[in-house]
Specification:
Arc Repressor Mutant, subunit A; Tetracycline Repressor, domain 2; mainly alpha; 2 domains
Length: about 200
């Protein structure tokens, strides 16, 4: 069954579609994708079957919208810390934003994009490709910030910024996962602080 794209919806339609996606994202973060049914989402979002299939062809279509939604949420936080980077010290502002957000959540939930990747990467090739693009965008934001720092001369000429950006993202993901398991932010703090300290050592050589 064909669905109506967001661009062609009325403001009311976009609001309804947005409510469905936000509801699905919340339920899937709590129960997992496999543990969340279309009926669960319909009931929680207070929409009918016909409304659901007006906006989404099937569950896979809705999962794709949830991935986009969670990616937008995560990257919005990243922009807060990375868009105004000028020096290595500014990385601590970015670090504090992530740590305080996790602390405010009681370290429950971990990274929404990481959680989706963990569940879907081995079972849904289309979702895995979409999530790979999400992480690539995140990595690019880090890369751009580190490039600014390198351009200012705080990193040695020839520093492999691509490698550093990938390592930073990997450290963050590991820190978020361990913070979720331990229910405290120490792993996330240790991961990011160690990477920032490493950048400082590069600059003093």
């Amino acid at each position: 069954m064909p669905t109506t794209t967001p661009e062609k919806l009325t403001p009311k339609g976009r609001a309804t579609r947005g409510r469905i996606v936000a509801t699905a994202a919340e339920l899937m973060s709590q129960r997992g994708v496999a543990g969340t049914t279309i009926e669960d989402i319909q009931n929680a979002a207070a929409v009918s079957t016909s409304q659901m299939y007006h906006y989404f062809a099937d569950k896979g279509d809705l999962v794709a919208a949830v991935i986009d939604f969670q990616t937008d949420q995560v990257l919005a936080v990243q922009h807060l810390g990375l868009d105004r980077l000028e020096c290595i010290d500014d990385l601590y502002r970015w670090r504090d934003i992530m740590v305080e957000m996790m602390r405010g959540l009681g370290c429950v939930g971990g990274c929404p994009v990481g959680s989706l990747a963990s569940e879907l990467s081995e079972t849904d090739p289309l979702a895995r490709a979409q999530l790979m693009r999400s992480f690539a965008h995140w990595e690019t934001l880090i890369h751009d910030g580190l490039t600014v720092i390198a351009t200012r001369g705080e990193l040695p000429h020839g520093t492999d910024v691509d490698q550093l950006a990938l390592a930073m993202l990997a450290a963050i993901q590991g820190g978020l996962l361990l913070s979720q398991v331990r229910r405290n932010t120490r792993p996330l703090e240790a991961a990011i602080d160690t990477m920032i300290d490493y950048l400082r050592t590069l600059g003093v050589r």
